[in-house]
């Protein structure tokens, strides 16, 4: 396979298939994906989309039914996890409950056969890097959720693996801690620079952490791209509606779907006249969420009348009331077109504003 | 008015709402059972141990520590005591090791595992007396199929006297105990193995640990509490058992495989000296109590990990 950078990708999967129950369930259905060196690659998808199975197959905890897994440029199919130079952080952190924090962190080094003195030194280095130097003598049960996560990261880091595999590491933290932990994770990865594959179902985490995001659904790869690409140029209606909160509006029109993000549907007077596609919005409900106004209503004039959501930033002061119809508009360049039958992206077309 | 009083009656506490009363009702059968079949015989054993009651003369006369003093001067008693410890110690060790191995087989996923599980549990479900009689035949001095097999394999020239030669006698007794109790230990350890989160084993695999390192650094420490329980059950059931010894060797011609339980039976029931038999049996109690306390305490210490 041609390698555009000339360097071996840290992780690559080729036509990966993983079946369960003798082929009745296809958890991963022909996925090809490669991560660049030092990249933060996020696997994003709803539960049951195969993202965790994909990660576990990379780790060697599952054997693929078909296709290849490459780590550092070498095919590792059939190799046990310990031979793959990877480190994994589990959703539950999977700290060894009977071992102290230090014993947890040195465990991979012990398995490697490293000398005791060097082990202790490396453990201290990893612990300091994650700010848990003072907890080395504690047992996991004496730690908070955030501290446990750092111990799990230190245990992953200490071996200096080729790849970090992270399986929803933030999902066990409460919402408040999650935001700071996300920030720490990102800074930590930038500091050590190790290629990371990160699994999550949370689009906020994916958008915030990923250099690139791979969106999966039903075992298939839907789109891979930078957060901005995935958000602004979704490859199909699944990605368009899975990413973004509220999701992209999709309006049927002549066998196609016209998509536009809620924040692009604005009162007509704040949209530049040159590139304005008019929408008549019959408003039935308003929500006021963190400074933005979410306007629920039925859009007509752009396609078949469809329920849509508009998100008006605080800077838009146009008075809106439920029960009335307003002239809204979208900038033509913000419209995205999809094939109604397949959901795939289609060629853009020009929509004339109704007068 | 009548409607109001009606609803008032419906809202009254019935017998079924009184938790304290119900607790007693439900506990009563087991309390009666334990008192009648455990506490009373235990009290009786203590009382008899300080008496000169015999089968021929059931009148109760207090004789103080006389029975115990006679035990301490009796070489057969010491032999039985030593054998009891030896059988228990060796059996317990083997039961735990084999139980752990079998438990690993029981939790593994493979075709036909129901058959293996069934076969593994069979020794435990067979009544002790019946299975021991089967072993009596297997270990027969002339017709033993074990000897036949060993002879055919060229490992021995003449039949072994499994149940007549002192050392082989003890080997046979221990082997049957281990055979009988390993399934129980396996099931207990299996419960412990199943309770370990799968993540831990997977994390250890990703961390580079091989089979033995995962076994001795992760699995065994985490199952230690249940292994202790399995060991406790194995020990108590070996320590107090007389069936195996009694059926296989009757204690041996020279009391070479005598244990406390069989010796107490021989003296108390066989010989008719009830007081003496009770005093021998009582030696089981403090030792079992100490063992139970020690193991349960270690279990609790490990549980607060």
Automatic annotation (TrEMBL), chain A:
Residues 11-243 form the ABC transporter domain. The keyword Transport applies. One of its GO terms (cellular component) is ATP-binding cassette (ABC) transporter complex, substrate-binding subunit-containing. Pfam families: ABC_tran. SUPFAM superfamilies: MOP-like (SSF50331), P-loop containing nucleoside triphosphate hydrolases (SSF52540). Gene3D superfamilies: 2.40.50.100, P-loop containing nucleotide triphosphate hydrolases. Keywords: ATP-binding, Cell membrane, Membrane, Nucleotide-binding, Translocase, Transport. GO terms for molecular function: ABC-type transporter activity; ATP binding; ATP hydrolysis activity. PROSITE patterns: ABC_TRANSPORTER_1, ABC_TRANSPORTER_2. InterPro entries: AAA+_ATPase, ABC_transporter-like_ATP-bd, ABC_transporter-like_CS, ABC_transpr_MalK/UgpC-like, Mo/tungstate-bd_C_term_dom, P-loop_NTPase. SMART domains: AAA (SM00382). This is ABC transporter ATP-binding protein. It comes from Bailinhaonella thermotolerans. The lineage of its organism: Bacteria, Bacillati, Actinomycetota, Actinomycetes, Streptosporangiales.
Automatic annotation (TrEMBL), chain B:
It is found in: Cell membrane. It is a multi-pass membrane protein. GO terms for biological process: transmembrane transport. Pfam families: BPD_transp_1. PROSITE patterns: ABC_TM1. The chain crosses the membrane at residues 21-50, 85-107, 114-138, 178-197, 218-239, 277-296. Keywords: Cell membrane, Membrane, Transmembrane, Transmembrane helix, Transport. Residues 81-297 form the ABC transmembrane type-1 domain. SUPFAM superfamilies: MetI-like (SSF161098). Signal peptide: none annotated. It comes from the Bacteria. GO terms for cellular component: plasma membrane. PANTHER family: BLR7065 PROTEIN (PTHR43005), SPERMIDINE_PUTRESCINE TRANSPORT SYSTEM PERMEASE PROTEIN (PTHR43005:SF1). Belongs to the binding-protein-dependent transport system permease family. This is Sugar ABC transporter permease.
């Amino acid at each position: 396979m041609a390698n555009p950078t000339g360097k071996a990708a840290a992780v690559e999967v080729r036509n990966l298939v993983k079946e369960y129950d003798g082929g009745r369930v296809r958890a991963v259905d022909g996925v090809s994906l490669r991560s660049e060196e030092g990249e933060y690659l996020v696997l994003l998808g709803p539960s049951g989309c195969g993202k965790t199975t994909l990660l576990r197959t990379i780790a060697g905890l599952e054997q693929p039914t078909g296709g290849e897994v490459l780590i550092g440029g070498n095919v590792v199919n059939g190799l046990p996890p310990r031979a793959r130079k990877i480190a994994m952080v589990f959703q539950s952190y999977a700290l060894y409950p009977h071992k102290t924090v230090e014993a947890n962190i040195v465990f991979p080094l012990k398995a490697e056969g490293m000398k005791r003195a060097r082990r202790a030194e490396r453990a201290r280095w990893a612990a300091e890097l994650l700010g848990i130097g003072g907890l080395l003598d504690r047992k996991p049960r004496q730690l908070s959720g955030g501290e446990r996560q750092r111990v799990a990261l230190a245990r992953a880091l200490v071996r200096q693996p080729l790849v970090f595999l992270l399986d929803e590491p933030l999902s066990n933290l409460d919402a408040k801690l999650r935001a700071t932990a996300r920030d720490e994770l990102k800074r930590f990865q930038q500091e050590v620079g190790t290629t990371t594959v990160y699994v999550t179902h949370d689009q906020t985490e994916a958008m915030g952490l990923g250099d690139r995001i791979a969106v999966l659904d039903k075992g298939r790869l839907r789109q891979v791209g930078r957060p901005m690409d995935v958000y602004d140029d979704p490859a199909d209606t699944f990605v368009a509606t899975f990413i973004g909160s509220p999701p992209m509006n999709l309006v049927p029109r002549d066998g196609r779907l016209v998509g536009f993000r809620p924040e692009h549907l604005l009162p007509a007077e704040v949209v530049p006249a040159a590139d304005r596609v008019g929408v008549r919005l019959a408003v039935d409900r308003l929500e006021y969420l963190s400074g933005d106004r979410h306007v629920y209503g039925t859009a007509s004039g752009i396609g078949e009348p469809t329920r849509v959501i508009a998100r008006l930033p605080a800077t838009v002061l146009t008075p809106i009331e439920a029960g009335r119809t307003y002239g809204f508009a979208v900038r033509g360049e913000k419209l995205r077109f999809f094939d109604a039958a397949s959901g795939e992206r289609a060629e853009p077309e020009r929509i004339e504003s109704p007068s | 008015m009548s409607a109001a009083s009606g609803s008032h009656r419906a809202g009254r506490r019935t017998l079924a709402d009184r938790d304290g009363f119900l607790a007693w009702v439900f506990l009563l059968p087991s309390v009666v059972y334990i008192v009648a079949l455990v506490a009373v015989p235990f009290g009786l054993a203590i009382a008899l141990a300080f008496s000169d009651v015999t089968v021929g003369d059931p009148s109760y006369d207090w004789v103080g520590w006389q029975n115990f003093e006679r035990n301490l001067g009796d070489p057969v008693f010491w032999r039985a005591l030593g054998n009891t410890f030896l059988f228990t110690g060796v059996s317990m060790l083997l039961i735990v090791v084999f139980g752990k191995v079998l438990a690993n087989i029981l939790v593994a996923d493979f075709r036909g595992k129901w058959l293996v599980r069934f076969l593994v549990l069979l020794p435990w479900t067979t009544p002790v007396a019946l299975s021991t009689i089967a072993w009596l035949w297997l270990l027969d001095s002339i017709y033993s199929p074990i000897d036949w097999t060993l002879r055919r394999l060229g490992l021995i020239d003449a039949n072994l006297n499994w149940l007549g030669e002192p050392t082989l006698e003890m080997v046979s007794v221990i082997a049957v105990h281990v055979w009988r109790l390993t399934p129980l230990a396996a099931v207990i350890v299996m419960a412990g193995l199943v309770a370990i989160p799968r993540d831990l084993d997977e994390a250890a695999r990703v961390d580079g640990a091989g089979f033995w390192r995962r076994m001795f650094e992760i699995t065994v420490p985490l199952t230690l509490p249940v292994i202790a329980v399995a060991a406790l059950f194995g020990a108590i059931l070996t320590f107090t058992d007389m069936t195996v010894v009694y059926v296989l060797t009757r204690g041996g011609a020279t009391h070479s495989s005598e244990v406390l339980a069989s010796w107490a039976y021989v003296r108390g029931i066989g010989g008719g000296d009830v007081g003496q038999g009770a005093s021998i049996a009582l030696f089981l109690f403090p030792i079992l109590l100490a063992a139970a306390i020690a193991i349960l305490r270690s279990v609790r210490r490990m549980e607060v990990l």
